[in-house]
Design brief:
The chain has a single domain (about 20-200), classed as Isochorismatase-like (Rossmann fold, 3-Layer(aba) Sandwich). About 30% of the residues lie in helices and about 15% in strands. The protein has 7 helices and 7 strands. Strands 1, 2, 3, 4, 5, 6 and 7 form a 7-stranded parallel beta sheet that branches. Helix 5 (about 145-155) packs parallel to helix 6 (about 175-185). The two termini are about 30 Å apart.
């Protein structure tokens, strides 16, 4: 890995990637993860909000689908995920809502998930196939957990995976760099939102 870091070294290397029949996946940009007072706040998550908002706006101009993948757990019920993590994103609460800056529009899709991957035991794959999607542009938090898991499953299911570095944030710099490295070398293409928009 280059000394200046993966995300700086690779995104400007001129590598060709395709964005055929894309959908924008917005992973877990929820109050519990992104806003003061949330149960598991990632402070760095705010850095991804403006780039994601811009990417969504440009995608909407082209009529590409925007799909929000939202962590959501049943109130008052046991959830295996809480064996490892603080209870969060309880259905019907403020914490489980998408942040105001990225609020979905009526034509957008919202998919609830109870595990890290947006594909696990959800109808995301069905929705994407009905829409004719070939490429998933994966954004959100956190890079090394839910974003990564979603990218893995997307690749396993045959989708072209693209991850803009400015639209994802991890639990720390080491996790951001190592996860982006893994995604680039094993699962898809790592680039920037500006370069994705240029492919629209």
């Amino acid at each position: 890995m280059a000394e200046k870091g993966f995300s700086e070294h690779f995104v400007d290397d001129g590598k060709n990637f395709t964005v055929e029949n894309p959908a924008i996946l917005v992973v877990d940009m929820l109050n519990d993860f992104c806003k003061e007072g949330g149960s598991m706040v990632l402070k760095e998550g705010v850095e991804a909000v403006a780039p994601i908002a811009n990417l969504i706006a440009k995608a909407r101009e082209h009529g590409f689908p925007i799909i929000y993948i939202n962590d959501c757990h049943r109130p008052g019920k046991y959830d295996k995920e809480f064996d490892k993590r603080t209870p969060h994103c309880i259905d019907g609460t403020w914490g489980a809502q998408v942040i105001d800056e990225l609020a979905p529009l009526e034509q957008d899709y919202c998919i609830k998930k109870r595990r890290f991957s947006g594909f696990f035991q959800t109808d995301l794959d069905l929705v994407l196939r009905e829409l004719g999607v070939k490429t998933v542009v994966v954004t959100g938090v956190v890079t090394n957990i839910c974003v990564r898991s979603t990218c893995h499953d997307a690749f396993f299911l045959g989708y072209n995976v693209v991850v803009p570095t400015d639209c994802v944030r991890a639990t720390g710099p080491r996790e951001q760099e190592s996860t982006l490295w893994d995604l680039e070398t094993q699962y898809g293409s790592v680039t920037t939102s500006d370069k994705v928009i240029q492919k629209f």
